[in-house]
Amino acid sequence: MPVTQFDNPEKYRYQTGFLANLETEAIKGALPIGQNSPQKCPYGLYAEKISGTAFTAPRWENQQTWVYRIIPSAAHSAFERVSSASRLELNFNYIPDQLRWDPFDINSDVDWIDGLHMVAGSGDPALKNGVAYYIYGATKSMSDKTAFYDADGDMLVVPQTGPLDIWTEMGCLLVRPNEICVIPRGIRYRVDLVANEPIRGFILEVYNGHFQLPELGPIGSNCLANARDFQIPIAAYIHDSSSEWKIYSKFHGRLFSAKQSHTPFDVVAWEGRYYPYKYDLGRFNTIGTISYDHPDPSLNTVLTSTSNAHPGTAIADFVVFPPRWLVGEDTFRPPSYHRNCMSEFMGLIQGSYIAKDGGKGGFQAAGASLHNCMSSHGPDASTFDKASNEDLVPVKVGVGSMAFMFESYYMIGVTDWGLTKCRKLQAQYSEESWGELKDLFQPPNEAKMEMDSI
Ligand SMILES: [Fe+2]
């Protein structure tokens, strides 16, 4: 079966269907029938609309959800700045070097919010234009009666270590390594550990629009990530209108908090197509060559955030490299040497990656690399030598492995934390990868004679 065998068993039920208009009730009859805003909602609930796109956005991209809750989310104190959260601020250093990081640490005694570090990004959430990449690591659940939301963009979360138990306004998600989830802009949620297992992973935040499935073109109507495999929570609620909750807001790279005397997880029913969801990367239907040459990695796109200004160009693609068969004849099977107008941030969830040695100091699980706009890269010397001389029999690569890429249209800047404070940047990455590439040029004798005569 094309599903991941997870260590942690599933604990929730879900709806399915990417961007489907869904409806769900924790109590039968809580959802108004035939209208969104009746004079009195069932059971004394309040109606609240969450718009993920402009009211007037075209139907294909319009996303909104009506929630029916015990207390409206507007009921909270003024937000106060949390001054200790500089790790989330937008301070990008743009440099052309190839960069690679050793596995990132999981600091002790931190929760989801304290354990979020922006490592790179570009653009400005105030203009809803750009991306940011984060590393998260935590050893404890969020404090009791706290929740978080990100006004800056959608977060695509890629767990590497430990499962995330996420309670959102729309219901609960268990997200384990080899699964991903997307939490849209503005949705309140909290992250708890499962059995105190530490968590670590990567986040792609997109300031523009929302993620979509890539167009399939000549591939046809199935393959890559299929719409039916995306899982969406069912409504679940807490009835608590008397204790103090703290709501954290990430707003333009700054952290704020406000108090309220009710839980944000009080949605009894909802309907719409603006909601969090998860996806098992083990279900990805990988396409590749069955003849020759190495296809572009766009063939491995799970989700894309497209640019309206440049059709066919993504603000950010989320791309994976699952276990797959390589059968190309007379072919250098790893990626070739290349320079890309797009910027490539890669991470490894587990295992090793075809183009890079996974040994100590190499491209390791929980580590990452960044090959920026037009920064040259490709296989390291040992991988080139091996791939140039191996027998081209069918071989299954990436077994037990999952690498991924955040590929962006933007030039990507690296934060001070990413460059220095995290202390994981490999100083010798470029030299160790490509410094040992040999001159293998063997011109025919006639060509040599011509050169000598010039
Ligand atoms: Fe590349």
UniProtKB/TrEMBL annotation:
Enumerate the spans annotated as Homogentisate 1,2-dioxygenase C-terminal domain. 283-439
Please give the biological process terms from Gene Ontology that the record holds: L-phenylalanine catabolic process; L-tyrosine catabolic process
Q: What is its EC number?
A: 1.13.11.5
Q: Where is the Homogentisate 1,2-dioxygenase N-terminal domain?
A: 13-281
The pathway it acts in is: Amino-acid degradation; L-phenylalanine degradation; acetoacetate and fumarate from L-phenylalanine: step 4/6
Active site residues per record: H294
Q: What class of enzyme is it?
A: oxidoreductase
Entry annotated with the keyword Plastid: no
Positions binding Fe cation in this chain are: H338, E344, H377
GO CC term (a single one): cytoplasm
Keyword terms: Dioxygenase, Iron, Metal-binding, Oxidoreductase, Phenylalanine catabolism, Tyrosine catabolism
Q: Which Pfam family is one of those matched by this entry?
A: HgmA_N
Which domain of life does the UniProt lineage start with? Eukaryota
Task: Identify the residues that bind homogentisate.
Answer: Y353, H377
State the needed cofactors, names only. Answer: Fe cation
Q: Which GO terms describe its molecular function?
A: homogentisate 1,2-dioxygenase activity; metal ion binding
What family does the Swiss-Prot or TrEMBL record give for this protein? Belongs to the homogentisate dioxygenase family.
Query: Which PANTHER family does this chain map to?
Result: HOMOGENTISATE 1,2-DIOXYGENASE
Q: Which NCBIfam families does this chain map to?
A: hmgA
Q: What is the protein name for this chain?
A: homogentisate 1,2-dioxygenase
Origin species, per record, is Hyaloscypha variabilis (strain UAMH 11265 / GT02V1 / F)
